[in-house]
Amino acid sequence: MDINRAQSDFIRRTRRYAQTFDELIADHLLTAEPTVEGTGYEFHMRPSPDAVSYTVTATPSTAESRHFFTDQTGTIHAESGKPATDKSPAI
């Protein structure tokens, strides 16, 4: 996932994870914030208050698609029909 790669590069440069997509874009690690129109998913990035971890969820715009979850481990988890978490099967 591009977001994990961008966050990995960001923490190497700054010793913390980005708090927003805008930070990743400003550092040229992402070209744009992912949109429902462009991906079919609504992305939410939730950094920890101390910026030492983050989670990202991807909620599909259509009910039959899978939900995704990832965090600073880089592992992507997926579920069908319900939100994915770190306990969901890894893909």
Concise summary:
25% of the residues lie in helices and 27% in strands.
How would you characterize the overall build of this protein?
- This protein has a four-stranded antiparallel beta sheet with strand order 1-2-3-4.
- The protein has helices at 2-14, 21-26, 36-39; strands at residues 41-47, 54-60, 66-71, 76-80.
- It is an alpha+beta fold.
- It has one domain (2-80).
- The longest helix has 13 residues, at 2-14.
- The chain is globular, with a radius of gyration of 13 Å.
- Helix content is 25%, strand content 27%.
- The protein has three helices and four strands.
- The mean pLDDT is 95.
Which blocks of ≥5 consecutive residues have pLDDT under 50? none
Question: Care to count the β-strands?
Answer: 4
The string of secondary-structure elements, in order, is HHHEEEE
- Amino- and carboxy-terminal Cα gap: 12 Å
Mean pLDDT: 95
Q: What is the number of independent domains?
A: 1
Structural class: alpha+beta
Write the layout of secondary structure elements.
Blueprint lengths: L1 H13 L6 H6 L9 H4 L1 E7 L6 E7 L5 E6 L4 E5 L11
Antiparallel strand pairs: 1-2, 2-3, 3-4
Relevant terms:
alpha+beta; 4 strands; 91 residues; single chain; four-stranded antiparallel beta sheet; 25% helix; globular; 3 helices
